[in-house]
Amino acid sequence: MNFDTRKLVWTRPPERFRISPDQITITTQPHTDLWQRTYYHFRNDNAPVLQMETEEPYFSFVVKTDFAQSKHRFDQCGIVLYLDSENWLKASVEYETETLQHLGSVVTNDGYSDWATTAIDGSIRTMWYRLSRREDDYRVECSPDGVTFQQMRICHMRKGGGIIRFGIYACSPEDSSFTAVFSQMHLTECQWLVHTGQQPDKEL
Questions:
Q1: Which of 30, 77, 141, 161 has its CA 20 to 30 A from that of 174?
Q2: Looking at the 3D structure of the chain, how many domains does it have?
């Protein structure tokens, strides 16, 4: 399976973007985001999402994100697995201030989002992500150099079996706009190895 940019399909294309075999840029529009219900009690579902479709049950997708132009609270770009408005996951760095950002991920099942974050230095302006699939379970990892990846989370997607769509996104939830740059996109055999510890429970 190859990551062919010609096979990518937009969900809500932005006004400004550029796609080449080696690089994709997305210029965000103000007041765009992905979020569902939890805590804030609002629903945002208008971020541009660019994805490819597959039914391959085991693979890993890697991409480098460059968000050097982000400058306003909540500006973000990263990876996404957008199945429909109420079932998706995303991982990104969200701008906060010149000295603080949040590296995090959101998993949304059946219309409710969670958000897991950690604070990182504001001087970090690039991040690699690796999304791995094992049927309807997924692992998200990040890396500052594209070589050594650290796990951000493991999750189950209730609608994540069979044919799925995955790719990239960028958005600016507040009154802002920036250009996100995506590069070094490639697919590999699944880098999330089979679990060899505790054996699965026997079916009753």
A1: 141
A2: 1
Confirm whether pTM is higher than 0.90. Answer: yes
Inside any domain, residue 199: no
The residue-averaged pLDDT of 12-31 equals 97
Nearest residue to 94 via CA among 60, 58, 119:
119
**Nearest residue to 127 (alpha-carbon basis) of 77, 59, 82:** 77
| Terminal alpha carbon distance of the chain | 36
Residue 69 lies in a domain: yes
Whether 170 is in a domain gets the answer yes
Please state the φ and ψ torsions of residue 160, each to the nearest 5 degrees.
-95, 15
Extract the tokens encoding 195: 């679990």
The type of residue at 181 is V
Let me know: does 197 contact 69? Beta carbons within 8 Å: no
Strand 137-143, strand 164-171: pairing: unpaired
pLDDT at 203: 64
Q: What is the CATH number of the domain that holds 11?
A: 2.60.120.200
Range of the domain at 143: 5-188
Q: For residue 156, which phi and psi values (nearest 5 degrees)?
A: -110, 135
Q: What gap in Å lies between CA 81 and CA 88, rounded to an integer?
A: 5
Q: Which helix (H) or strand (E) holds 47?
A: none
What would the pLDDT profile of 157-192 be if each residue is shown by its tens digit?
A: 999 999 999 999 999 999 999 999 999 999 999 999
**What pLDDT, in 10s, does the model give residues 125-137?**
999 999 999 999 9
**Does 155 fall in a domain?**
yes
